[in-house]
Amino acid sequence: MSKRKVGRPLQVDPDGNIINKTGVNLTIPVKLKEFLDKHVKNRSEFFTEMVTKMYIGLICPKCYSDNETGLRDVPVGIECTNCKIWIKLKDCPKCNARYDPRATVTQGLALDVPNPHYNPFNNDNDLNAGCSKCMGDK
Fold first, then answer.
1. Taking the domains of the chain in order of start, what are their residue ranges?
2. Distance between CA atoms of 10 and 136, rounded to whole angstroms?
3. Stretch 120-125: mean pLDDT, rounded?
4. Which of 11, 31, 89, 93 is deepest in the core (most CB within 10 A)?
5. Residue 93: predicted pLDDT
6. Are the C-beta atoms of 129 and 120 separated by less than 8 Å?
């Protein structure tokens, strides 16, 4: 007589390898828990999907907007138009310098100072124009 397997079936990746998992204890606001209880069937899958989307820039970690509700992908990077933050900055295809369109950055007690890494896209009309750093070198 064989024993019946107990628990959920193991999850495997596209190559058939078992995906190891671990439990994570989170402290969240009560209203968020109530919302999840009402609207989300599998919190483990939901959590994994949302964190993955935030990591790869498909969802804003501040306001949770996505491509349909506020994220826009431009040559410089991925920006959330709702909360006005950059989710991900890209590298210039010509010189590999990181784009940084922020002329000022907040430092300390909300003091705006010039951004030492300021490197905007050089030309909105020409996608191959490069960044201001490599265009300034010429």
1. 25-90, 97-138
2. 55
3. 60
4. 89
5. 80
6. no
